[in-house]
Amino acid sequence: MTPHKPAHTPRPFMLSFDDGPLPRKTDAVLDALSRFRGEDGKPLRAGFFMIGDAPARFLAGRQYFAPYELWWRKGSMRRHPELVARALAEGHMIGNHTVHHVWARWPVYRDMDAVRSEIHGWEAHAEAAGWHPATAPRLFRAPYLLHTPTMTAAATELGYRIVGGQTVGDATPGNGLRAIEQQIRRILNTPDTQPALLIFHDIRPVTAHHLGTLLDRLQHEGHDLRHFSV
Ligand SMILES: [Zn+2]
């Protein structure tokens, strides 16, 4: 019997993590990543789209977060600069995910100044934690991937590159490891010569607990894990 051969080469993938940094969750993700190497054999580099200082209380977040938002316990570079410093020291890249994780469909974010101030507000916390604006790449991912014309225009004007990606479903309520794996397989089974850029959420327990296992399985199936690069 001939062994089963996939019709195409398994698609490579890169990793990104949104909405941190949170103690115990972001640390667990960084611990898991430290076992892996990129295509050049060097410690794997991932992208972390962090939040400057999201409101810690649900009601206080209502002016920023999406009406359907459930996970209001999001990251804060202001409260946890040591996690930002750790990610940078371990070779990862950090990107701008706004200071408050704003929902771009609120009318206020059709205003360029409001968006500029969300982007600048992030920079202040990032700089305080060791991000160097003069040398670091300027990467922007809009919260909820809502790259509206205003979001895109403001970020571009401030020298940022817009970074999309494909969500693995770890922020969907009730999704466990199995659902996330299925979603990743859907993404990676789409033939493409370019690596997929997966979007996880380091603040979600399912990701913090299972990332290492998941990466082991995907590599075992032949999917190359690549350094985050855009
Ligand atoms: Zn987000």
UniProtKB/TrEMBL annotation:
| Record Gene3D superfamilies | Glycoside hydrolase/deacetylase
Its GO biological process annotations read: carbohydrate metabolic process
Q: Which GO terms describe its molecular function?
A: hydrolase activity, acting on carbon-nitrogen (but not peptide) bonds
Q: Where is the NodB homology domain?
A: 11-230
Superkingdom of the organism of origin: Bacteria
Name recorded for this polypeptide: Polysaccharide deacetylase
